[in-house]
Amino acid sequence: MSRISVRGFAVASATAVTTVGAVVGVASGQEQGSVAHTEAAAADATIADVPAGLQAQVQTASLTQQADDASTQADAAALKSAQESARKAAAQDAQDKKDAADKKAKAEKDAKEREKEKEASRSAARDASTFTAKASYSIAETQAIARQMLPADQFQCFSNIVDHESGWNYRATNASSGAYGLVQALPGTKMASAGSDWRTNPATQIKWGLNYMNSRYNSPCGAWGFWQNNHWY
What we know:
Residues 79-127 are annotated as: Disordered. By secondary structure, this protein is an all-alpha fold. Helices cover 63% and strands 0% of the residues.
C-alpha cells in the first residue's frame, strides 16, 4: 500500500493538524504531548501511520477544513467586492450632487445676469421722455437716440432687428398687416402704452420696442437670436 501524505489533504489549521497528530501519537503508543509536539508529529505523518479504522475520520476532518478555508476566502472576497461597490456608489453619488449643485449655481448666475440686463434696459428706456420732440427725424438721428436709450452691448442686436423690420424708418407701415414703426409693432396702437406720440416719435417707439424685447426675450440680443431662426420675433 502506498504511503499517502496527510499534507496531501491540505490540513491547514492547527486544530486539524492537532487532531491528526493526536491520532498518530496514540497509534504509535506515544503519550500526548504539547500542541507543538503533536503538530510536528502530524507534519511528518502519513495516512499509513493512522489506524485503518480512523483513516476515514482523518480524511473527513481534512476535507472539512479545506471547505472551511474555501468558505472563509469566499466571504473575504465577497466583503471586498461589497466594499468596492459601496465606494464606487458613494463616489458617484458625490459626483452627482456636485454636478447638480454646479448646474443650479450656473442657472442662478444666468438668471441674475439676465435680470441685470433687463433692469439696465428698463432704466435706459425710461429716459425716452428726455428727448425733445421734433417734426421729423433722420435715420442718423433716430439711431443716435437708440444708442442713448439702449445698453451698449444690446444696441447692435436691436439695430439688426430694426434694419430688417423697417430700415430705421419710424413711419414705416406694412400695408398688408398694419404693422407700424421702427420695430413694426402689430398693431401699431400697442405702442400707445409707451406714449401718445407713438406715431411720430422714434424715442417712444424705441422705448416700446425695448420693453417688448425685454419682456418676451429677456433682451434685444435674445430677440435677435430668435429672429435669426424664425425671421420674425
